[in-house]
Amino acid sequence: MVSPVIGPCPGRGVWWGGTRGGHAGAAPGLESQVQDVVRERFRQHLPAETPDDGRVRVTPPWAHRMRRRYRRVVPIVMILILAFVAMTARFFVWPSLPPLPDHADAIVELGGPGNRDAVALALAREHRAPLVIQSTLSQDANSDTCLPPTPDVRVGCFHADPPTTTGEARYIGDQGVAGNWKSVIIVTTPDHALRARLLVERCFPGRVYVATSPLPVWDWFRQIPYQWAASAKAMLFQRDC
Fold this sequence. Notes:
There is one protein chain. The chain has 241 residues and is of the alpha/beta class. It folds into three domains: 3-58; 60-94; 96-236, Rossmann fold (3-Layer(aba) Sandwich), CATH 3.40.50. It has six helices and nine strands; from the N terminus they run ββαββαβαββαβαβα. It has helices spanning 28-45, 61-93, 116-125, 165-179, 190-203, 217-236; strands at residues 3-8, 14-20, 48-49, 57-58, 106-109, 131-135, 154-158, 183-188, 207-212. It has a five-stranded parallel beta sheet, sandwiched between helices. It has a two-stranded antiparallel ribbon with strand order 1-2. A two-stranded antiparallel sheet has the order 3-4. α3 links the parallel β5 (106-109) and β6 (131-135). It is rod-shaped.
């Protein structure tokens, strides 16, 4: 006698199909009727999936719970990723900066990657300020050899202590007070612009403007995470000059 195989498959739900005893062609009508009844009974109580081979696989409840969680989590993760990308672009790739003035008291080139010398010298040649100063190595400090001479523009060099943006901001604050500066143009790269302006404004009471030099492509991968961390530190922990 032919009897249908009806039983659970551990870890894979419940399935029906095939025969036990006899051969596949025996009593096809009885086998088909039994399988139809069993399928209908289980479909009334549990959600089921029917593969292409005709067998019925009952999806366990935990699988449906996982799918619901997945559908809720994925949109949230995508929103967070898009927000991070938008904020990175807004703060470090295309920062919002005020237009440069026609005249300032000094141009200060901060240390870091990119061809900042070209931007600082171009501003000097436009006579945006009578003084251009570069943050440079200790051996070039207190000299005028860190930048090529520019007609009618004084060149100065300094080494920040500490050799960080904070040290550069303190130097600008001290020189601004000593020279009675009212405004300064700092030269840096886009990823550094907002943080540099924030730190200089904490030390210098005048107006702070920023001119940017393009950042080399290969430096973006290092500078973006670094600037995120350094900006968080500047805004949350280091709140004075």
